[in-house]
Write a structure and sequence with these properties.
By secondary structure, the chain is an alpha+beta fold. It has a single domain, classed as HIT family, subunit A. Helices cover 29% and strands 14% of the residues. It is built from six helices and five strands; from the N terminus they run αααβββαββαα. The protein has helices spanning 25-29, 43-46, 52-55, 94-115, 152-157, 166-176, and strands spanning 57-60, 64-68, 78-82, 119-123, 140-145. The protein has a five-stranded antiparallel beta sheet with strand order 1-2-3-5-4. Strand 1 (57-60) and strand 2 form a beta hairpin. Helix 4 packs across helix 6 (166-176). The longest helix is centred in the middle third of the chain and has 22 residues, at 94-115. The protein is globular, with a radius of gyration of 19 Å.
Amino acid sequence: MRPADGQGGVGEPDAFQRLWTPHRIAYIKGENKPESGEAEVCPFCLIPAMDDAEGLIVHRGETAYVVLNLYPYTAGHTLVCPYRHVADYTDLTLDETLEVAELTKQAMRALQTLSRPHGFNLGINQGNVAGAGISAHLHQHIVPRWGGDSNFLPVIGQTKTIPQLLSETRELLAAAWPKEN
C-alpha cells in the first residue's frame, strides 16, 4: 500500500538497512528504571536475591557483586555494584571501596581472557546529570572496547549491535572468572 503523496509506505522497500533491536525498547521506555530511589524498587538491590542466571550475576563478593548490564554498550559490558543501597562513592565503606576496585580488576582479567578487548572504559556516573541511569545505587561500569567497535551506527543511527545473548555472555564470563588464590 502506498500513501497518496507517493512516499514509501510501511513495509515498502527503501534504501535503508535496518537492525532490529526490540530488547532496547524496555530501556527507551524506562521500564526497568525505578521512579523512586528507594531500595525496595532498586534493581541493584533486587538482583542479588535472584539466582545467578536470572539476575545475570557473574560473580558474588562479600560487599559487592558483578552483573552484566541489561543495556550494554558493547558485548561483556559489566557493572560492579555494592550490595548496600548507596548513591555516593564517598559514602562507601573502606571494605566496599576495596572490593569494588578488586572486582573491577577481576572483571577486566576475565574479559581479557574471554574476548581479548583492545582496551576498556571504566567509570562511575555520579548522579542523573552525570549520566547515571539509576543514580540512587552506585555502580562501576566496565566496558570492553575493540578497535573499530564504534562506527556510524551509534553516531548516525543511534544503534549499537551486540552479537551475543546476555545469558550466553554471563555463562562464558562466569567460567572465565579468575580463580581465588
